[in-house]
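re: ur question from yesterday

yeah so i grabbed the chain u mentioned. its 306 aa long if i counted rite. heres the sequnce exactly as i have it in my notes:
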Amino acid sequence: MRLDRQRLRRGSALILVLWCLILLGMAVFGVVDMVELSVDSTAHHETLMEACALASSGVAFGCNPQLLKDDPLLSQKTGPGRQFKVMIQSEGSRLNLNYILLSNHREILVNLFTQWGLSIADADHVADCLFDWVTPGDLPSLNGAKAADYAKADLPQRPTGQPFTSFDEVEQVIGMDLVEKARSNWQDSFTLWSSGPLNVSEAPADLIAAVFSLDPKRVFFFTEARNGQDGLAGTADDVKVPDLRTFQGDLGIDDILMTSLGNQVSLDDPIRRVESIGQADGAQVMISVVTRLNTSPMQYLLWYEQ
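ran it thru and got these structure tokens back, copy pasting raw so excuse formatting
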């Protein structure tokens, strides 16, 4: 009887030891997994830092006012799996939303929105609502909306009576959902940071057409000739537009229209948009900046990373 009890005790102790070994093994494997995750996380963080550094290097090249968008310095491989690529654009090649609204040329927005598929009534509505957001007072435009209209629609936002400071603010305007539905990338056609007038030396055909109420297909022939053989604006083979009088003649714009809208266009803009993508071992970082050229120190109007 005593022998059976001793055997039972020894068996229980053995089972206890085995359970302890199992638990210890699980703990060890857990620690190993945690260490591996920590190492992987650290390695990923380091490659992200390296990609960010490469993107920053690209920004430095892109902000050089002497470089055009087709310069080979803007696309470099610095090692295996490591590179940066830079895209340059004149910020003036986009429509400055504040400039258009505050100079009371809402018809430019109506022209563009109808190009994108909005009805004239909806385009008028959105343009008036945008105008009412940036101008003071409580009296709305014919098709616009002021604070009372936002309250009536049970919306928390209210017009500021000041120029837009971000596209997030623009999206709060009544009617912008119609624009978003018609053109999800509408922001690519607008800016809040250029000097104002549309830079017709680099602007696309649809934006030039919107300013002067022209057929975009007609303007396309102008931009095609202007962009040279590579088909890209802002490169070395561009055909320079010598002056706005030549631009007017090339597009057949009459004197009355040019006099009315001449302050909406220019042949240059000191503001540049630079987008630099850095890559390192699969990690990628893009830095976008809007900067004023030929200033010391460099003046950045916008900087964001993603």
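noticed a couple things. Residues 29-41 have pLDDT under 50 and may be disordered. also The chain has two domains: 2-91+272-305, 95-266.
anyway ttyl
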